[in-house]
Specification:
This is Aldo/keto reductase. InterPro entries: Aldo-Keto_reductase, NAD(P)_OxRdtase_dom_sf, NADP_OxRdtase_dom. Pfam families: Aldo_ket_red. One of its GO terms (molecular function) is oxidoreductase activity. By secondary structure, the chain is α/β, with parallel strands linked by helices. It has a single domain (3-214, 280-303), classed as NADP-dependent oxidoreductase domain (TIM Barrel), CATH 3.20.20. Helices cover 36% and strands 15% of the residues. It contains 11 helices and 12 strands. Strand 1 and strand 2 form a beta hairpin. Helix 4 (141-153) packs parallel to helix 5 (167-176).
Length: 330
Amino acid sequence: MNYRNLGNRGLRVSAIGLGCMGMSHAYGAPADHREMTELLAKAVDMGYDFFDTAEVYGTPDNPHDNEELLGNALKACRNKVVIATKFGLRFDMESGQVPYPLITDSRPEGIRRSVEGSLRRLQTNYIDLYYQHRPDPQIPIEEVAGTMQDLIKEGKVLYWGLSEASEEDIRRANAVCPLTAVQDRYSMMARWHEALFPVLEELGIGLVAFSPLANGLLSDRYNAASHFDAGSDYRAGMPQFQPDSYDKNRELLQLIRYIASEKNATPAQISLAWMLCKKPWIVPIPGTRRLDRLQENAGAADITLSEEEVKQIDQALDAMPMSGVFGGTK
């Protein structure tokens, strides 16, 4: 595994992180904790040291399942890993609806409750990287940043970041308490956040790319016959996994396959290497429940694309038709 600095605040992480949400939430029935604990141990052995979760990644029966899973699985190697989790979304337990609706809550007292809950579930006395999960229109970002500053002084949080934030919020937050990372959806199919690259570079903030394989489509492991359970797997409703999307994305998948054959790599590895070679401060966090995918994703860090090759890929992506993609289709 290769490693890189996430921004310029001193946080060094594996070049490929592991998004852990899908072990508990959104990608079918929750995975078996014993099997995932074994997988997480193998990830650490492989050199992964950057693990992403959130307090709301869970199930109706256990809304905090994912943090509990990581807390148990990583406690033996806690000083060797970087755990990122998130605050600012909470379950509306009084709604009477199941699954519980999510509502934004970045009030200082809400953040305080969240951090104590996450520390307990993660079985640790500090959180390496703590994100505001989504902007809260009711709370000025300066107030959020001030609370983060206090938590950092107290040693409960080491670094902090924002997810799905605007340039204005990034600048205002950073002016109060310097940000280490911004987490956004980013892939060959979801490039709108490239508009933030200049401000991230200017302020020395890293980008953590979630859904870097467009929820798995760019792995080239699926086709029009692929089936996802509508009751437990969000991909059943995602535009890029509808039967007609494969025709719309044929040119994209052919491009990735061609580059993969040229580089003796897989389509997933090319999709990850493209962003790794774009900027030295981008860290993708693909998720998986499978050892072979974990190994495959790690191998992307060893693939080199030249600046000219990245530019040619970008130009091709600009010009080609694509289906919609979950989480930001304009």
